[in-house]
């Protein structure tokens, strides 16, 4: 019976219409034959590009280059199976769309591909490598007016020292007068070179009436005010140097001429160099971007926040604000609260930091976070991200705030206040991590009050995860302990506080195999805190310990016998209470 069924299935597949077979092939080929269009598409290679927004990035495999300089095109594992059948092979190879993606590493192969593409609009994704011969590519795009044949052009110039940058300068000497088919243009070049390319011509952009994605990294525009891109849906502009960037006023003028914009990424240099990057006008001109779905702004000190206050956007926009090298005099938290309150119509924050912000009345149109993550980098930068859950439980990033500090400030001291600004009180899951264990500043995290400030900002927390705590483990564990009964308190009478994180059900701690001498005291505090929580009716359902030294296994066994928690997972093994 099985062989008969197999033959019937094969016969039904063999007689599928040609168009359906070809559409199936294109689906298998994936994004290699499709332009970089969409709100979650990043046209540059993430392996090379040092900055990408925090939301999910759909970069294409064919944009990656191996060390010998040969591109990895689409994965043939699935598509080559369709070429086994003679009929399918002839059908696919005869369709000109298959040949719309030429590879310019060798002139012979490129010429052969172009000869079969006919008049199909081309997709050109090429990395100018310093040690490669780029003459054929430059000749095609320049003298042969390849831009006029292209649907997409992505050029990524090698950052290493070599002739790639000079090759690109030659190409940028004269932009074509027309690009009627162009839908995607992405140009990425290194910064800090003494010779700068000619700016992207306004006449060239105006001729690209179909342009929907424009991405420029370290590449200047000829004009910000004279460009009208009515069909543009994605604009990416990032600069690492002072000469390519512009003023807030010019950016606002440009955005007023892009009414269909859905994704906006603007990145100013991290260093502060121009006073106009941080203007404080009395009356801010506001541009309305009603179609926007993703927004990422970055720059030194208050630049990103100031630009954010010039933009009116829908309440459901995925937002990222990166503020680097903030100085204590910037008063960044005050201005962040002011901007959030204005853009999301949120109620002013209570002056008392212990006030519970779980009530939706304080949130306005701010998204309701289901999970919050905090990540530290080199003890000078912290990233705070709020996630919302879809109907199927999938988490999606909603808002991300990146704070880089200078001077005596420490990023850890700002986290609880930022969580209050974002009204994160409804979050049920919280993760705290760092790139290195040293990033948890002992002088800051040794303060138990800092941890209590975090817990007050997250009153509904059920799942808590902390990675690489090291020496800050003991004050962290003590902060989870419920208050002592009045009869056991020392000193004057105090007003009794509730148990920290009363809804907590799961605790996950990853210790990265610290030395036993550093772990054992912290684990003793953990055991004491969880025992006190269990006695007060706040018993944990699950405790997971990852990458802990085996020398604490005896304490884990004692915790099991005391029934401090329902279940313990120790380095991947269950220890039931």
From TrEMBL:
Q: What is this protein called?
A: F-box domain-containing protein
Source species, domain of life: Eukaryota
């Amino acid at each position: 019976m099985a062989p008969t069924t197999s033959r019937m299935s094969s016969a039904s597949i063999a007689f599928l219409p040609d168009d359906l077979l070809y559409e199936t092939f294109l689906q298998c080929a994936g994004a290699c034959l499709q332009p970089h269009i969409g709100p979650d598409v990043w046209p540059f290679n993430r392996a090379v590009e040092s900055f990408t927004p925090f939301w999910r990035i759909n970069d294409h495999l064919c944009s990656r280059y191996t060390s010998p300089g040969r591109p990895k095109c689409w994965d043939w594992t699935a598509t080559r199976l369709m070429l086994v059948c003679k009929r399918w092979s002839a059908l696919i190879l005869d369709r000109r769309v298959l040949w719309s993606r030429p590879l310019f590493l060798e002139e012979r192969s490129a010429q052969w591909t172009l000869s079969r593409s006919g008049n199909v609009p081309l997709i050109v994704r090429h990395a100018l490598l310093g040690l490669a011969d780029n003459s054929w590519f430059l000749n095609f795009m320049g003298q042969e007016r390849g831009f006029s044949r292209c649907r997409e052009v992505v050029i990524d110039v090698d950052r290493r020292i070599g002739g790639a940058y000079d090759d690109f300068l030659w190409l940028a000497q004269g932009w074509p007068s027309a690009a009627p088919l162009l839908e995607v243009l992405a140009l990425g070049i290194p910064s800090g070179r003494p010779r700068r390319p000619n700016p992207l011509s306004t006449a060239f952009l105006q001729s690209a009436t179909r342009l929907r994605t424009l991405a420029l990294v370290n590449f200047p525009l000829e004009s910000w005010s004279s460009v009208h891109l009515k069909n543009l849906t994605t604009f990416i502009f990032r600069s690492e140097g002072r000469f390519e960037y512009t003023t807030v006023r010019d950016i606002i003028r440009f955005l007023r001429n892009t009414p269909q914009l859905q994704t906006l990424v603007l990145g100013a240099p991290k260093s502060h160099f121009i006073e106009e990057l941080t203007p404080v006008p009395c009356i801010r001109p506001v541009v309305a971007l009603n179609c926007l779905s993703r927004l990422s702004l970055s720059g030194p000190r208050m630049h990103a926040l100031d630009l954010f206050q010039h933009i009116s956007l829908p309440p459901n926009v995925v937002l990222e604000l990166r503020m680097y090298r903030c100085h204590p005099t910037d008063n960044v938290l005050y201005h962040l609260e002011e901007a959030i309150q204005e853009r999301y119509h949120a109620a002013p924050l209570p002056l008392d930091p212990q006030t519970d912000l779980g009530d939706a009345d304080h949130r306005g149109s701010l998204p309701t976070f289901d999970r919050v993550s905090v990540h530290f980098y080199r003890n000078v930068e912290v990233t705070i991200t709020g996630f919302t859950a879809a109907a199927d439980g999938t988490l999606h990033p909603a808002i991300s705030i990146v704070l880089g500090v200078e001077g005596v400030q420490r990023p850890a001291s700002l986290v609880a206040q930022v969580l209050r600004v974002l009204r994160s009180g409804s979050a049920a899951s919280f993760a705290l991590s760092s790139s290195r264990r040293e990033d948890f500043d002992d002088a800051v995290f040794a303060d138990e009050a800092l941890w209590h400030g975090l817990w007050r900002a997250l009153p509904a927390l059920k799942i808590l995860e902390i990675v690489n705590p090291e020496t800050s483990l003991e004050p962290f564990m003590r902060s989870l302990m419920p208050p002592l009964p009045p009869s056991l308190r020392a000193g004057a009478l105090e007003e009794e506080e509730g148990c920290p994180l009363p809804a907590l059900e799961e605790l996950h701690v990853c210790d990265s195999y610290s030395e036993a001498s550093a772990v054992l005291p912290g684990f003793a505090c953990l055991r004491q805190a969880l025992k006190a929580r269990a006695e007060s009716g706040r018993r944990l359902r699950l405790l997971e310990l990852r990458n802990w030294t085996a020398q604490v296994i005896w304490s884990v066994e004692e915790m099991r016998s005391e029934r401090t928690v329902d279940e313990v997972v120790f380095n991947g093994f269950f220890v039931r209470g």
